[in-house]
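#struct-pred

JT: dropping the chains for the assembly here, can someone run the whole complex?
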Amino acid sequence: MSPRVKMPKQTPELRRRNFSEVALGYSKEDALREADRCLGCKKPGCVEGCPVGVEIPQFIDALRRGDADEALRIIKRRNSLPGICGRVCPQEEQCESRCVLARKDEPIAIGRLERYAADFGRDCRRARESTKGKRIAIVGSGPAGLTCAADLALMGHDVTIFEALHEAGGVLTYGIPEFRLPKSIVKREVDYVRSLGVKIELDAVVGRTVGVQDLLREYDAIFLGIGAGAPRFLNIPGENLGGIYSANEYLTRINLMKAYMFPDFDTPINKGRKVAVIGGGNVAMDAARSALRLGAVEVHIVYRRSEAEMPARLEEIENAKEEGVIFDLLTNPVAFEGDGMVRAMECVRMELGEPDASGRRRPVEKKGSEFTMEIDTAIIAIGTTPNPLVLRSVPGLRTTRWGTVDVDERGRTSIERIWAGGDIATGSATVISAMGAGKRAAFDIDSWLRDGGEWRP
Amino acid sequence: MYRICEKEVLAPNIIHMCFEAPRIAGAARPGQFLIVRVDERGERLPLSLAGWDPEKGTVDVVFYVLGTSTMKLASLKEGDCVLNLAGPLGEPTEISHFGDVICACGCFGIGPAIPLIKSLKDAGNRVVTVVEGRSRSFIFWEDRLRSLSDKLHVVLGDGSCSEPGWANEFISRYLSEGNRVDRIFVHGCPFMMMVVSEASRPFGVKTVVSLTPLMVDGTGMCGACRVEVGGETRFACVDGPDFDGHLVNWRMLTNRMKQLVGEEDLSQRLWERRNWHR
Ligand SMILES: Cc1cc2nc3c(=O)[nH]c(=O)nc-3n(C[C@H](O)[C@H](O)[C@H](O)COP(=O)(O)OP(=O)(O)OC[C@H]3O[C@@H](n4cnc5c(N)ncnc54)[C@H](O)[C@@H]3O)c2cc1C
Ligand SMILES: Cc1cc2nc3c(=O)[nH]c(=O)nc-3n(C[C@H](O)[C@H](O)[C@H](O)COP(=O)(O)OP(=O)(O)OC[C@H]3O[C@@H](n4cnc5c(N)ncnc54)[C@H](O)[C@@H]3O)c2cc1C
Ligand code: SF4
Ligand code: SF4
Ligand code: FES
Ligand SMILES: [Mg+2]
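RK: done, full complex below.
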């Protein structure tokens, strides 16, 4: 078996100072060679590993025949955002982990092929008139909302998305950095969703500009895809000093507001010299790598467990290390110091004790290990919680004890005609799982609007 | 795109603008604010609502021209458009029948004071308004304030009127004289809101301020707007902007508002150099 075709990348020395995409994408030859490795299984495991069920052997077969247009057409039967998924899906845990080749050899690079098809296949627009006469309001234009909207439009419904920000895409637009997911790709895929007849109303903060009750009056069904966007903080002394950002603020300034092009763009950001990023997930890696690109001299990832427990994708940890991010593991901040602006961070060293409820070994403080780290910028990347803005405004909407919306497997909430899905129902998860939820809800919305029946027996 | 249907210079560097934004006009309440983004490269600029008309579908703001974004906005004319306008944001001011209330305002804060006084009156309160300014030329909408309030006091920092001084001095005086006051509302710059809160603190009269920390999204997503109130961290854009002035950590607020002055200064100088003709 020939080896998996490598992804060409910008060298670490070069890319650590620019915001252009790190992974450059397969050439036609690369794509043909990689597509050739696929066995075209009759009972493909890979498809089961994909939350939206992309017909993987079929699209790879089209690529093998050199037909990227056809490959894209096949992918879009299941996935309206392939350029995005091909880039940011954690394939090693999803489709690729279930590829038969993964058992003995390296799996097919399904994500890279999907990206190739999306980038080089010609768009197949299928604008349609609304035929079913049902009107559906989607709240939030992240991957869950976009997918739900696209699928409903393809079924012939009249769909409007309400988005609070001035740009559609959710985390794809404000969170995931340009060097992993170029905004031109997000724009193109959002435009595709528009081309299906979906209307997108920007600057529309549901719960403020329009109420959910208003939407219930005007629309036959509502899908809430509002994400889990509220940042968590450490709640330690000094955390409100200047120069201390949530990862959301830091990344929003850079991605949505383009602060990396300040002063050509008006939104400013502190270009730190010595930056500490607290957390060990993908978001922390994105923040750290962004700080480097803004020109920081030193960027530290400060994480209280060891590398083995880091929730970030291995690939992202590798990328960050190659670019020169310093990892301070088993380290926990206890206070920030400074006068107006942050100047230093007090930390303690940790060691791993007994496993906790999540099965990960619990970090405990090492006595007498306090030390001070001089910094001028800190970024808190320890997760997010559901934003209560919309939820507060809907009396009777049942939530879980984590603050997420309580939904059944079809995405139905406790209130008739309101569905929800994506991070707002699961807590922070992945792009593709949010898309899966949007898809399931679209299917259920269509059938419920047709057949009705008991809401949630 | 949102069209500017009216523009008026009210005082030195203080401008009133009216935008066509029917959705916002239909939902607005006193104490709420908007976020304006002037153009493709613009930042998200929070401005308090100074009025709205659901019938005409328009909303009003009053702003002080300070740096890049406010200068950009000020350079637009009637008939021009801004790219984005989101709102109404924030929790509306809590309004009920308090009894005797004081509305203290100054600078751009005269704007949001207008709808506030209106709804306080509608709720049956007796409203004494005190408006401050360095000199007469910084006071605008005096007639409107006078006709809406039960009593209007104009206080001038340069002493060129019958009641010299600033709003905080007025309030100290008024409260020491034993006048009954059930609640105070303040709209103005952070310094003014702080000193007014200090003035009322010894008398224990609840003083509601409308905070203006740095904001980005205005929807609770970023935490830029965090303020400390009663020792707790709150997000001004979703938990506020109204808070109890006696519990606000003013030092932290002003420090956080200064986080990016170097960058703001650079941005403003570049903008002025490129747009000297506007
Ligand atoms: C920095 C970062 C990097 C990530 N990297 C990856 C990755 O590499 N791979 C991966 O699979 N996942 C990644 N994720 C996770 C992934 O992005 C999310 O799981 C996914 O975006 C969730 O989609 P969603 O549609 O549920 O919500 P979101 O993407 O959060 O979208 C919600 C949308 O709703 C809008 N909204 C909220 N409230 C309102 C309201 N009141 N009215 C109107 N609109 C509203 C928001 O503005 C937003 O646009 C990352 C997340 C972050 C933050
Ligand atoms: C809820 C709220 C309501 C407000 N209402 C009004 C109003 O009705 N009229 C008015 O004149 N001003 C109001 N402000 C303040 C106004 O937003 C700032 O003056 C404006 O952002 C300055 O922008 P600039 O680019 O012109 O100046 P810059 O030179 O960028 O900034 C000057 C100073 O303004 C403050 N500022 C800068 N950016 C922001 C930001 N994104 N958010 C908040 N403050 C910032 C900082 O303290 C900064 O040092 C309000 C602020 C908030 C948060
Ligand atoms: S959408 Fe994601 S999980 Fe599905 S096939 Fe594509 S890369 Fe794999
Ligand atoms: S399981 Fe692997 S080899 Fe089989 S069809 Fe899927 S990608 Fe191809
Ligand atoms: S402005 Fe972002 S959370 Fe308030
Ligand atoms: Mg500015």
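JT: nice. The pocket of FE2/S2 (inorganic) cluster (ligand 5) is lined by residues B 215-218, 220-225, 235, 237 (CB under 6 Å). Chain B touches chain A at residues 23-24, 27, 32, 37, 41-44, 68-69, 72, 83-89, 216-217, 219-224, 226, 228, 233, 238, 252, 255-256, 258-260, 263-264, 266-267, 270 (CB under 8 Å).
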